[in-house]
């Protein structure tokens, strides 16, 4: 019989706030601060008017996801093109240390100061940090973790936020003189770190056909060049408009407005590659493609599951919330193939300012974060979740009415019987084999969960980028529904977003499949007929670009070349464009692999003061928990000709649309309140946008699942019946996942180190299980080539360094973007079409073994 921990059911003293445990007391609309008065229907994921991804492909005219596409040359590409699409292969001197067991602490504070003062100087860097994430300051351009509703510390930032802010506040300029000195080929041979550290972009630049340098261009001429190319297209659908998740709400809204007035829905964005799987799973099951918890819920939870996420590197401020939850008695279960320092112990830098905690923070190991660590195999999370739920059903059999919340299920859900049968029918043999976790370990997890009622599950790209990322998240939802652990304080779903406004951009309409309600409201507000045909997502856009079916690529921020899969495939598509346009703040590799003509347009960052005709402007961002807050820059921009994103978009719109638009682009540029007034009439939840944004800390958007109001088609929360597949690979093959290093945010590389994993001064590494290394005759620091295998095609990257590491046997891991050339463009998650960067079949050989074969391949290619 399963042994369950004491809980509020058996021991009320264990409950904390016992009155909040009852499902009947789930919060109503407005009971939480500034949360709104009513939930709204979700506009993110297909409902009745877009029922399936297959239907979308027909509507958009996009190639089907299963279409076979030959692999591009990968290891040979450096001999074929003078401008490198991949980071250079030169090694920088690997130094290995032991894996760290504690995250943050004094080292994090020192690193934060070092980056800030090195990039922006002591005065400018310190001023930037003191305004970061403050209620009257600016929003961190790094992760989307929420800020506290009430008190905020003087240092309301983490190490990675400090690095991102320091990079934005850089006082070095990469202006016309810089580009005159360096050709595109020379720049491409710089490391990604050195490209970023070259300084802020300060002047609009153009590369004309046949040129190998960017040279200055006046803003009006740049706008006219874009307008000429766009208006010469046979169809608006021959243009692709990509968006980064760092773009605030106001320019994002303007961008989608311009693109739709131009006549297309081709609005791929970075979320297609990260949390598209989350939205695709959450909306059909819960009615909203976002999370259902607040920061206070994290503090109040009894159990927190963290799946496929490394908060110590990717969302460090989350560790403070987990620390508070632990101090309140929460148990934390971490599920990840790598044992990460941030999920072990955490030393809160804020504790150094507390006399009662300073000594312990300095000398001890800090707070233990994880109570149970399940080192799952790559792509084994669905099987693991089924194992936990299978144990829970057995516990319910032995303790009727004490484990499964049947009253909640009866009142709020559908599909339970089919789901229950599916879990019960799953064999323990399949669960253990696929997950790599024993039945006994899964029993430990079930024991922690069984009688608890306030449960939160957090996940990130370790789940969403699996082949079955959508169905795995549906199993997360299933776990919450069977426990009734949603729509009450301390319980719910928590997809942890990456970029600062990646969630807000989608809310603003940056999506290739926006729904009828949104398009109707846009038409009424701006007096034009938006296109109703679906546009292309990222993978579809890249396929169309590579096939020569598009002619213009426009990027509002970001670095799709380094963020996307199949790097050389993307590069081939970029080179086929007549025009590529990159709006950005700093140089990156994506700016160098261009179309025949290319524009590089410099814009402000979050930290820059944005002065327009009506005065100092502010923008807004939406965090992972649906809070919209203001962003108001505090540093004077560097000397040069940078413009705000709003001004750039409006300038292009005026030049391109001409008499075809009745939108007052000038008024919106002169005063961003005008943009927000439009948004307030188009997007539900943003009524009184200008007024609410000026409240300290911003405002909550309505959230149906948070209040047990499920805006699905049937008005219920829906259980899912998923399919658990066992995949076979060849005996010499391994499963690779890509990850970030600690000195990296998304594709931006700050340094060559990953100190928590013991990696210093190198990025071209492959983490391997020692047994897998021994089977291949490899020793630590041996040079290796890695080849991926998909649909009979091979892609190879050379000159990586083998590193023995604690990772499940049969699994390996490498950093992106270095390993992105191995991720096939057609290997995508079902439904979401997200590239499967967390499941790549590879073989590994010593570099010397393949020399003769490689030389022959190169000779054949060059001939």
Automatic annotation (TrEMBL):
<keyword id="KW-0560">Oxidoreductase</keyword>
<dbReference type="InterPro" id="IPR041953">
    <property type="entry name" value="YdeP_MopB"/>
</dbReference>
<keyword id="KW-0408">Iron</keyword>
<keyword id="KW-0411">Iron-sulfur</keyword>
<dbReference type="InterPro" id="IPR009010">
    <property type="entry name" value="Asp_de-COase-like_dom_sf"/>
</dbReference>
<keyword id="KW-0500">Molybdenum</keyword>
<feature type="region of interest" description="Disordered">
    <location>
        <begin position="1"/>
        <end position="74"/>
    </location>
</feature>
<keyword id="KW-0004">4Fe-4S</keyword>
<dbReference type="Pfam" id="PF00384">
    <property type="entry name" value="Molybdopterin"/>
</dbReference>
<dbReference type="InterPro" id="IPR006656">
    <property type="entry name" value="Mopterin_OxRdtase"/>
</dbReference>
<dbReference type="InterPro" id="IPR006657">
    <property type="entry name" value="MoPterin_dinucl-bd_dom"/>
</dbReference>
<protein>
    <submittedName>
        <fullName>FdhF/YdeP family oxidoreductase</fullName>
    </submittedName>
</protein>
<feature type="domain" description="Molybdopterin dinucleotide-binding">
    <location>
        <begin position="734"/>
        <end position="840"/>
    </location>
</feature>
<dbReference type="InterPro" id="IPR010046">
    <property type="entry name" value="Mopterin_OxRdtse_a_bac"/>
</dbReference>
<keyword id="KW-0479">Metal-binding</keyword>
<feature type="domain" description="Molybdopterin oxidoreductase">
    <location>
        <begin position="200"/>
        <end position="581"/>
    </location>
</feature>
<dbReference type="InterPro" id="IPR037951">
    <property type="entry name" value="MopB_CT_YdeP"/>
</dbReference>
<dbReference type="InterPro" id="IPR050123">
    <property type="entry name" value="Prok_molybdopt-oxidoreductase"/>
</dbReference>
<comment type="similarity">
    <text>Belongs to the prokaryotic molybdopterin-containing oxidoreductase family.</text>
</comment>
<dbReference type="Pfam" id="PF01568">
    <property type="entry name" value="Molydop_binding"/>
</dbReference>
């Amino acid at each position: 019989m399963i042994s369950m921990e004491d809980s509020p059911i058996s021991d009320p003293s264990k409950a904390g706030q016992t009155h909040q445990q009852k499902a009947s007391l789930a919060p109503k609309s407005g009971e939480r601060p500034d949360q709104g008065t009513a939930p709204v229907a979700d506009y993110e994921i297909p409902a009745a008017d877009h029922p399936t991804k297959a239907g979308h492909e027909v509507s958009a005219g996009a190639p089907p996801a299963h279409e076979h596409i030959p692999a591009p040359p990968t290891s040979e590409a450096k001999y074929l093109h003078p401008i490198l699409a991949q980071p250079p292969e030169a090694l920088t001197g690997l130094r290995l240390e032991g894996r760290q067991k504690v995250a943050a602490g004094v080292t994090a504070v020192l690193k934060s100061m070092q980056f800030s003062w090195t990039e922006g100087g002591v005065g400018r860097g310190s001023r930037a940090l003191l305004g970061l994430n403050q209620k009257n300051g600016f929003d961190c351009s790094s992760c989307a973790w929420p800020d506290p509703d009430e008190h905020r510390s003087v240092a309301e930032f983490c190490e990675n936020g400090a690095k991102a802010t320091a990079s934005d506040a850089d006082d070095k300029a990469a202006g016309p003189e810089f580009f005159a000195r360096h050709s595109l080929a020379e720049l491409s041979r710089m490391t990604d770190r050195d490209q970023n550290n070259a300084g802020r972009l300060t002047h609009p630049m153009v590369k004309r056909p046949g040129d190998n340098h960017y040279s200055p261009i006046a803003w009006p001429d740049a706008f006219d060049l874009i307008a000429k190319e766009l208006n010469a297209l046979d169809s608006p659908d021959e243009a692709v408009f990509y968006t980064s998740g760092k773009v605030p709400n106001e320019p994002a809204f303007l961008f989608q407005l311009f693109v739709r007035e131009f006549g297309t829905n081709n609005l791929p964005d970075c979320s297609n590659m990260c949390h598209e799987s989350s939205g695709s799973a959450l909306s059909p099951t819960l009615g909203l493609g976002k999370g259902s918890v607040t920061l206070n819920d994290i503090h109040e939870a009894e159990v927190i599951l963290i799946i496929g996420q490394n908060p110590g590197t990717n969302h460090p401020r989350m560790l403070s919330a987990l620390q508070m939850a632990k101090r309140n008695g929460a148990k934390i279960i971490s599920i990840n193939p790598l044992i990460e320092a941030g999920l072990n112990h955490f030393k809160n830098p804020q504790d150094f300012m507390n006399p009662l905690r300073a000594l312990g923070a300095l000398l001890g190991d800090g707070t233990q974060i994880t109570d149970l660590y399940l080192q799952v195999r790559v792509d084994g999370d669905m099987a693991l979740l089924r194992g936990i739920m299978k144990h829970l059903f057995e516990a319910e059999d032995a303790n009727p009415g004490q484990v499964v919340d049947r009253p909640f299920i009866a009142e709020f859900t559908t599909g339970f019987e089919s789901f229950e049968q599916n879990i019960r029918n799953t064999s323990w043999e399949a669960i253990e084999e696929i997950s790599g976790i024993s039945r006994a370990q899964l029993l430990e997890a079930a024991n922690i969960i069984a009688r608890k009622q306030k449960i939160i599950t957090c996940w990130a790209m370790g789940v969403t980028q699996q082949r079955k990322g959508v169905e795995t998240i549906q199993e997360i939802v299933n776990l919450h529904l069977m426990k009734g652990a949603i729509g009450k304080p301390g319980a719910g779903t928590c997809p942890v977003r990456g970029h600062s406004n990646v969630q807000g951009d989608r809310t603003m309409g940056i999506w290739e499949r926006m729904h009828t309600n949104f398009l109707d409201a846009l038409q009424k507000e701006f007096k034009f007929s938006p296109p109703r045909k679906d546009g292309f997502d990222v993978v579809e856009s890249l396929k169309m670009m590579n096939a020569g079916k598009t002619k213009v690529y426009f990027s509002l921020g970001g670095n799709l070349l380094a963020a996307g899969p199949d790097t050389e495939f993307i590069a081939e598509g970029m080179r086929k464009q007549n025009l590529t346009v990159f709006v950005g703040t700093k140089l990156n590799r994506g700016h160098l692999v261009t179309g025949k003509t290319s524009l590089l347009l410099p814009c402000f960052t979050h930290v820059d003061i944005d002065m327009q005709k009506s005065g100092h402007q502010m923008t807004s961002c939406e965090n992972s928990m649906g809070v919209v807050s203001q962003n108001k820059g505090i540093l004077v921009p560097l000397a040069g000709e940078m413009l705000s994103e709003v001004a750039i978009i409006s300038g292009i719109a005026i030049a391109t649309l001409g008499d075809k638009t009745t939108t007052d682009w000038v008024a919106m540029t002169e005063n961003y309140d005008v943009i927000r007034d439009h948004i307030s009439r188009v997007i539900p939840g943003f009524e009184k946008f200008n007024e609410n944004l000026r409240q300290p800390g911003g405002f909550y958007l309505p959230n149906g699942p948070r209040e047990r109001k499920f805006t699905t088609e049937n008005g219920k929360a829906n259980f899912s019946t998923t399919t658990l597949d066992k995949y076979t690979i060849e005996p010499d093959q391994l499963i690779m996942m890509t990850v970030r290093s600690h000195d990296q945010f998304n594709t931006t590389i700050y340094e060559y180190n990953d100190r928590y994993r013991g990696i210093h001064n190198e990025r071209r590494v492959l983490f391997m299980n020692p047994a897998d290394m021994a089977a291949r005759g490899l020793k630590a620091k041996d040079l290796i080539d890695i080849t991926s295998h998909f649909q009979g095609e091979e892609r190879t990257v050379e000159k990586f360094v083998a590193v023995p590491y604690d990772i499940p046997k049969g699994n390996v891991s490498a950093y992106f973007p270095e390993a992105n050339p191995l991720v096939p463009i057609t290997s995508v998650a079902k439904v979401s079409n997200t590239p499967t960067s967390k499941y790549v079949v590879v073989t590994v050989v010593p570099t010397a073994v393949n020399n003769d074969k490689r030389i022959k391949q190169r000779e054949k290619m060059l001939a």
